């Protein structure tokens, strides 16, 4: 579960009780057919925070992001920037400033890097992220700007997906399993990028399997088990709670 991650530049968040709530989820339920996947999930993400959701595969972490985004019908309360968004269609949620990087990356393989990035732009959203900034953070994308996305390595495709989402200038970006299947070197680069995103004032909700990365990057953590939140706290608090780690995280 370990991977070396360089310490990213981070803007330290305010304490949770002081940081204004950007995303609030209360008593969230979701179903796949008759299967009750999310069973009353509640959490919050403050402005400028990196918050991670941890847990074993199949506990509902990815479903939580999909329910927030509108890809899975939610039951419960979801507020983004103080406004209810539960049940809105995904493109409406995205236009309100919530970015989503799915686990499967979902690039357009026949389109070039340039074209993939262009699809992420949203008119009238400001210029927090430009092509120049994206290429400064990840020069390899500029080197391959006219290369079809399907030719890129898995790590390059992951970076392209994150950067394409950033082109829409989100206030919060949800990233699902960004380091899955990547080399240790690429894992470190993804970690650096996530830290840079937060340093620019964009909140991050991260679903991550690698405990080392979540502990390094996050201000707060939630652990899920059986469709519910079973732990909420800081990285230090989780490391001090061996019982939670053993029961809900260790394989």
Key descriptive features of the protein:
single chain, 251 residues, alpha/beta, Rossmann fold, six-stranded mixed sheet, 10 helices, disordered N terminus
CATH superfamily: P-loop containing nucleotide triphosphate hydrolases
CATH class term:
Alpha Beta
Q: Tell me the Rg in angstroms.
A: 17 Å
Return the string of H and E elements.
EEEHEEHEHHHHEHEHEEHH
Largest sheet: 6 strands, mixed
Give the CATH architecture: 3-Layer(aba) Sandwich
- The computed structural class is alpha/beta
Question: Which residues form runs of ≥5 with pLDDT under 50?
Answer: 1-14
Total number of β-strand segments? 10
Distinct helical segment count: 10
Q: What is the topology, as strand order, of the major beta sheet? A: 6-7-8-3-9-10
Q: Quickly count the domains.
A: 1
**Percent range of helical residues:** 25-40%
CATH topology: Rossmann fold
Q: How many angstroms does the end-to-end distance come to?
A: 10 Å
The share of residues in extended strands comes to 25-35%
Shape annotation: globular
Q: What does the average pLDDT come to?
A: 89
Family: Belongs to the ABC transporter superfamily.
Keywords: Amino-acid transport, ATP-binding, Nucleotide-binding, Transport
GO molecular function, one term: ATP binding
Organism: Methylobacterium isbiliense
């Amino acid at each position: 579960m370990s991977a070396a991650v360089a310490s990213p530049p981070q803007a330290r968040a305010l304490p949770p009780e002081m940081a204004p709530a950007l995303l609030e989820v209360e008593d969230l339920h979701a179903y796949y057919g008759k299967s009750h996947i999310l069973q009353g999930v509640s959490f919050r993400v403050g402005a400028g925070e990196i918050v991670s959701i941890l847990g074993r595969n199949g506990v509902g972490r990815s479903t939580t992001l999909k329910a927030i985004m509108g890809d899975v019908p939610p039951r419960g309360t979801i507020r983004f920037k103080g406004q209810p968004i539960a049940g809105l269609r995904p493109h409406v949620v995205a236009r309100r400033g919530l970015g989503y990087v799915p686990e499967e990356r979902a690039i357009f393989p026949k389109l070039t890097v340039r074209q993939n990035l262009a699809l992420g732009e949203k008119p009238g959203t400001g210029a927090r992220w430009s092509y120049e900034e994206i290429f400064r953070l990840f020069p390899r994308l500029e080197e391959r700007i006219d290369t079809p996305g399907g030719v890129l390595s898995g790590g390059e495709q992951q970076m392209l997906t994150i950067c394409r989402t950033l082109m829409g200038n989100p206030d919060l970006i949800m990233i699902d399993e960004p380091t899955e299947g990547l080399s240790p070197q690429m894992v470190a680069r993804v970690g650096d990028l996530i830290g840079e995103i937060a340093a620019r004032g964009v909140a991050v909700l991260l679903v991550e399997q690698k405990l080392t990365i979540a502990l390094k990057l996050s201000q707060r953590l939630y652990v899920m088990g059986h469709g519910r939140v079973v732990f909420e706290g800081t990285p230090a608090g989780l490391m001090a709670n061996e019982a939670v780690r053993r029961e809900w995280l260790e394989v």
